[in-house]
Design a protein that fits this description.
81 residues; mainly alpha; 1 helix
């Protein structure tokens, strides 16, 4: 029986090392997948931010135009008085 035990150890040792590498490889793949998902989400958020900024610029332009009209109307009424 003692002669069989070293044979089993010689056989199991590379298998254990291979299993360890497989576990590490699976973890790396999982991290890469999560990073890809996070990058996609960041891209979506960047697009959303660009849209929000464009809306804010449009709102600011509209407010500026309204303010300009209000000032013009006040100046005209002040001159007429």
């Amino acid at each position: 029986m003692p002669s069989v035990l070293p044979g089993i150890i010689d056989w199991l040792q590379p298998g254990a090392i291979g299993a360890g590498f497989a576990i590490v490889w699976a973890q790396i793949k999982g991290l890469n997948r999560r990073l890809d998902e996070q990058n996609k989400r960041l891209d979506e958020l960047r697009v959303d931010m660009k849209e929000i900024r464009a809306e804010h610029r449009a709102d600011n332009r509209a407010l500026k135009e309204k303010l300009d009209r209000l000032i013009e109307n006040r100046l005209l009424t002040a001159k007429q008085s």
